[in-house]
Amino acid sequence: AKSSGRGAICFYHPSLDEAARDRRALELDLRAAMERGEITLMYQPVLRVDTGAMASAEALARWTHPTRGPIRPDLFIAIAEESGLIVPLGRMLLRQACVDAASWPDHLAVAVNLSPVQFHAGDVYDTVIAALADSGLPPHRLKLEVTENVVMHDVERTFVELERLRAAGIKILMDDFGTGYSSLSYFERFPFDKVKIDQSFVRGLDTSRAAGAIIKAIVGLGEALGMAIVAEGVETCAQRDALVLAGCTHLQGYLFSRPVSSATIAALGAAGPGA
Ligand code: C2E
Ligand code: CA
Ligand code: CA
Ligand code: CA
After folding, report:
1. Which of 21, 177, 223, 245 fits a 20 to 30 Å CA distance from 36?
2. Nearest ligand, CA of residue 71?
3. Ligand 2 centroid to 254 CA: how many Å?
4. Whole-angstrom distance, CA of residue 80 vs CA of residue 85
5. Atom 2 in ligand 1: residue holding the nearest Cα
6. EAL domain location, by residue (predicted)?
7. Is the Cβ atom of 198 under 6 angstroms away from ligand 1?
8. pLDDT at 123
9. For position 1, what pLDDT does the model report?
10. 274 lines ligand 1 (CB under 6 A)
């Protein structure tokens, strides 16, 4: 059933349920949207706790479907991963992020999310180096966000690839820490530059004592290993205060800014403190 061509779209699959057919339809639409350059990037500021200034911005993919409206990135990224489209899509987005960031003030870095599938496809290093060369963005202004899942398969090869990227001057960040199949031993194997505490723990601060304890433990690990600690999904002043008190070095969330356009990041970076 993996045949392509227009006829295949109308083919009746009694075995496919509604949801699977829906995903297949979205996959075809996604492919077309990519070809038309309709997947875009918005950027969310990440602030330093010590100065309050923006240090970087995270690139977040956006897709507005012609009839369905905005599609959640969680959904279309998952579809892109299942179909393999994430390889060309990820390459396009990485390149776009580097081009955009090259137009920002020099002190601002861009953080780009990488899917585990891109690593397994095996061309991440070359893709990253080419994007830097073509955009003129210096390596120290690019950060790559990977989740714990990235190291799950083929641990050795992934660490070798991350090591090469790091040797090229690119910072590597562990995203969504504490939610996947986490293993503290990853930190023994690979010197991540930054750890991003998952927003579920930030949300949990309001209701659970465990969330605060987990955040403090992650900060302690970061301090011992010289890693910066980012908290994401910060929505309230109470959360901000608790995260600052816990020792987080960077904060990101709607309290400070929603994801905005590249031009807005450039303007904020030129106007803000530390510029
Ligand atoms: P993520 O990497 O964990 O990104 C953070 C998500 O939290 C973003 O959702 C962001 O808009 C949202 N967020 C930021 N601050 C707040 C806040 O204060 N409150 C709440 N409720 N949410 C906040 P978004 O943009 O919907 O992206 C969802 C996920 O999709 C991302 O999670 C990431 O896993 C994936 N994704 C997005 N863009 C890309 C991309 O270019 N490549 C890859 N591989 N994955 C991407
Ligand atoms: Ca991320
Ligand atoms: Ca995250
Ligand atoms: Ca996430």
Report:
1. 21
2. 1
3. 14
4. 5
5. 113
6. 23-273
7. no
8. 84
9. 38
10. no
For ligand 4, the distance from its centroid to the CA atom of residue 201, given in whole angstroms, is 12
pLDDT at 13: 56
Please state the pTM of the whole predicted model: 0.93
Q: Is 44 in the pocket of ligand 1 (CB under 6 A)?
A: yes
**Ligand 4 center–CA 126 separation, angstroms:** 26
Nearest-atom number in ligand 1 for the CA of 74 is 30
Divide the 275 residues of the chain into consecutive groups of 10 and give the mean pLDDT of each group.
48 68 93 95 98 97 95 96 95 98 98 92 92 98 91 80 95 89 80 94 92 94 95 97 97 98 96 63
Kindly provide the ipTM of the predicted complex, given to two decimals: 0.98
